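Quick review question:
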């Protein structure tokens, strides 16, 4: 166990002790009730951190899921005398199913359409609670029984406190574990957009649904606890206004931090209580003035501290107690199965008469070429020649209007990028697509996503319970090996966003290598690199070729291409105009005319 881990363990123990001791002290009842409310808000907020702060999907509708949990138990315990301990799983099932259906319909929406959709179902469910006869309409349901556990009467706030906070800390632990895993990297990659994550083999649709359902389940548990704490429910606490308040909590606490959810819930609840007393006294009349103050705080936060309070506190703590530098991992020999590499010189990729039309524009026109195992092929041409489009056709980011692509004897035409990544084609991007707040090691480990042998559900459950530590260590070891291969091992714990552009480009290559590809597709790998960096990159690529890797690269830097590649394909206006060895291409009249004409 290293020093960082022991520091974390000590902090966790102090926190646990504080939570346990708080109600045992002669703490006034008022503060116990406040702590219970903070716990209920924190549960919803943890889900929102996963969904919005980390997954990048803004939801205004979480209060409706709290409502489903609360109304399910309220109705079943009062009208059907079902035990509250049975209504909890029933509520979770109903919430989970509703969230799954809503998620399937709405999560495909992009931009502002998704938040608008969450507002729509938030409002719909609120009115549903208020209109249904057997749910008591706007008067709601009263006479909900208190919880009983091991002979303890949880009607007493001090007793209920322990249950609420055990659940909150449990949820915090599960969420932190989830994020610190292969599944967590996939979830964090969602914010970087679909393209990169899918190219690394991440099923983005599945992970979006996963965190949507998890966030809804946490909200549902909060609703269940709320109903048995209040002993009465009506639609008001589940309205759109409350949905906005939950979002406000995570923005204040730190929208991308699980601990920020707890902090935001505490700060908001305590602030609201103080303002509710203070403002009417100051202004001389009653009213919801605290909402105005919250509005102003929100605007100030969005302008000056978008990350919220948690990162601010962490930065302060790091200044007081500088964090211990993590040691550079010395990668052990790989323990994960690798693909069988085809014999050097055997045909690996064959592109046959491929075409792509964008409306009236023919971006790629009947282009054919091949890549043999163990060779580096360059795809060159002037700007707009169709090189990137060809790349995107090979990697499944675009679908061809005609022609075919065969890889390792299999026809892969029309497959989507995840399926193509699964077959052993990994790529980098013209405009670097890294996750800037993640470390270099974690970014590279994302490339190893497909190398886990566990299924989706098992992997997620194991990740939440931290039962996959051995496999996680193997994946991180693979990432460390890839970083060592490209000479960036000394930067493995550095945030990717802090690296120079040249290093970021090489980091993308390491991430692609971590997929254990048979073919590496590099889109302008030398763009923006200085002379020495280009030389270093060229050396890395030559070493990869020597180790049997096949590479197809698009590049503008002629010197780089000519000294590195075995074979070159030249495109102009979407068509192939020449191909051959670097020497042949340098002499080719059509190339000199069309492309190298200006460089005598
Ligand atoms: N999604 C798209 N919709 C419409 N036109 C597109 C699209 N993508 C590319 N094009 C057009 O297709 C042509 C080829 O573009 P492409 O990006 O493949 O060229 P390139 O050779 O990679 O250029 P560069 O070297 O500047 O990156 C260009 O005219 C471009 O404007």
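Suggested answer, residue by residue:
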């Amino acid at each position: 166990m290293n020093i960082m881990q022991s520091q974390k363990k000590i902090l966790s123990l102090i926190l646990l002790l504080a939570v346990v001791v708080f109600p045992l002290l002669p703490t006034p009842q008022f503060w116990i009730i406040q702590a219970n409310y903070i716990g209920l808000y924190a549960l919803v907020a943890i889900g929102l951190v996963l969904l919005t702060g980390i997954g990048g999907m803004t939801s205004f509708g979480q209060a409706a899921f709290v409502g489903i949990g609360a109304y399910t138990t309220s109705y079943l315990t009062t009208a059907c005398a079902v035990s509250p301990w049975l209504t909890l799983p029933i509520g979770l099932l109903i919430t989970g199913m509703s969230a799954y259906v809503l998620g399937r319909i709405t999560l495909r929406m992009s931009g502002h359409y998704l938040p608008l959709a969450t507002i729509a179902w938030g409002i719909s469910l609120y009115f549903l609670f208020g209109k249904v006869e057997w749910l008591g309409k706007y008067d709601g349901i009263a006479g909900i029984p208190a919880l009983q556990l091991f002979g303890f009467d949880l009607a007493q706030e001090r007793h209920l406190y322990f249950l609420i906070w055990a659940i909150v800390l449990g949820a915090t632990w599960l969420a932190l574990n989830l994020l610190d895993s292969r599944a967590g990297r996939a979830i964090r990659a969602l914010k970087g957009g679909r393209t990169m994550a899918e190219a690394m083999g991440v099923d983005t649709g599945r992970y979006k649904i996963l965190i949507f359902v998890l966030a809804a389940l946490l909200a549902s548990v909060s609703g269940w606890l709320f109903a048995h704490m209040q002993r009465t429910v009506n639609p008001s606490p589940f309205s759109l206004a409350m949905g906005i308040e939950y979002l406000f909590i995570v923005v204040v606490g730190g929208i991308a931090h699980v601990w920020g959810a707890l902090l935001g819930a505490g700060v908001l609840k305590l602030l609201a209580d103080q303002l509710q007393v203070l403002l009417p006294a100051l202004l001389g009349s009653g009213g919801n003035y605290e909402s105005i103050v919250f509005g102003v705080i929100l605007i100030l936060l969005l302008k000056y501290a978008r990350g919220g309070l948690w990162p601010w506190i962490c930065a302060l703590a790091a200044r007081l107690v500088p964090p211990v530098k993590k040691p550079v991992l010395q990668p052990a020999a790989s323990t994960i199965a690798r693909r069988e590499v085809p014999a050097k010189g055997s045909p690996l990729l064959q592109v046959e008469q491929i075409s792509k039309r964008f409306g009236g524009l023919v971006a790629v026109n009947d282009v054919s070429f091949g890549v043999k195992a163990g060779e580096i092929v360059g795809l060159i041409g002037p700007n707009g020649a169709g090189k990137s489009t060809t790349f995107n056709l090979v990697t499944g980011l675009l679908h061809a209007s005609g022609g075919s692509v065969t890889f390792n004897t299999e026809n892969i035409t029309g497959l989507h990028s995840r399926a193509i990544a699964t077959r052993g084609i990994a790529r980098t991007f013209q405009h670097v697509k890294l996750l800037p707040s993640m470390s270099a090691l974690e970014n590279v480990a994302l490339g190893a996503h497909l190398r886990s042998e566990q299924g989706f559900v098992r992997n997620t459950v194991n990740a939440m319970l931290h039962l996959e530590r051995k496999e996680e260590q193997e994946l991180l070891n693979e990432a460390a090996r890839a970083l060592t291969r490209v000479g960036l091992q000394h930067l493995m714990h550095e945030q990717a966003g802090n690296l120079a552009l040249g290093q970021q480009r090489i980091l993308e290559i390491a991430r692609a290598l971590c997929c254990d590809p048979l073919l590496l597709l590099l889109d302008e790998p030398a763009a923006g690199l200085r002379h020495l960096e280009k030389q270093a990159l060229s050396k890395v690529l030559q070493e990869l070729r020597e180790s049997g890797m096949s590479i197809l690269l698009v590049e503008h830097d002629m010197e780089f291409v000519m000294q590195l590649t075995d074979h070159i394909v030249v495109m102009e206006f979407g068509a192939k105009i020449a191909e051959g060895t670097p020497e042949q291409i340098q002499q080719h009249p059509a190339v000199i005319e069309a492309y190298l004409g200006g460089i005598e």
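Why it works: The radius of gyration is 28 Å. The CA atoms of residues 253 and 309 lie 5 Å apart.
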